[in-house]
Amino acid sequence: MKFEAITIKDIAKALHLSVSTVSKALRGSHEISEETKKHVLAYANEHNYKPNPIAQSLKRGLSKSIGVIVCNIDNNFFSAVINGIESVARQKDYNVIITQSQESYEREIANSEHLSSRSVDGLIISLSAETKRVDHLIKLHDKGLPMVFFDRITDEIATHKVIADNFKGAYEGTRHLVQQGFRRIAHITSSSSLSITLERLEGYKKALADAGLTFEEKYIKLCPHGGMIKEETQQALTELLQMKDRPDAIFTASDRLSTTTLSLLRKMQIEVPQQIALVGFTNSISADIFHPSLTAVVQPALEMGQLATDLLIQLIEAKRPVTEFQKRVLDTELQIRDSSLRAK
To answer: Where along the chain do its domains lie?
Structure first.
């Protein structure tokens, strides 16, 4: 359902009633006649009236709750971020309400509307793979709802942002493959609309350029849902393997894409790294025990969640409007394991 900005004042003006009467009618006050209540409620329902979370918080103080929107919580990276969010929220006596977009733009809209109707004091959000427009979030932000973006961010809203150094992580992962002697390095990545996709693609390209290797578009495979739909990853991998000059290494750009690619290569009976080497972004605690163990660019997920929450609570509890915002870029770490090491 589309979020509408109708207010109590709008209802009062339309029905030629006082703001106080409308407010009491919406609360079911005994001071208002049943006929007036019925009239007010009918108009409110017809025009999709929803209580303004900011106005409510001003009246009764903070709700001490934070809304979180991530693509899915069974992703190792997002699970760790949530742990970071909850650790700081708990220390500062805030409750956390977690929702999942499942990489759906429509679900992201529904989640943001639901959380705002629950009168959360602020939002921590990582955009879905389908999200190309953020009008739904701009509306909430313009009404005064504090929000902080992490990982998958937008430049259309002036607020705090927390990301990993995606360019550096991708550069180091690709450079490592080059140093191991691989030359036809493919890149399996997420939706082209996501900030992380663009930043990691640039890191991959720069590593190739610095090594004197030509960037070839044919080695780039986009998975619009970031690996959540296994068939997308399988199709991308199949297309790469069917090439005459198929890649001798693959760099994958997200947690789910990395672990799924390794699993699919094994099912396809492709030996890693003997036939195709693999480096990926992943925070999986199982990377060491995969067969072979997976070389990974690791993000400081826990710290990202902690920092995002600290920044959001600062916005929520600020005594004056905040006009200066931070974009915090945290370091990544390349952990080298068997999946990328060329046999000597």
So the answer is: 8-50, 56-163+301-331, 166-299+334-340
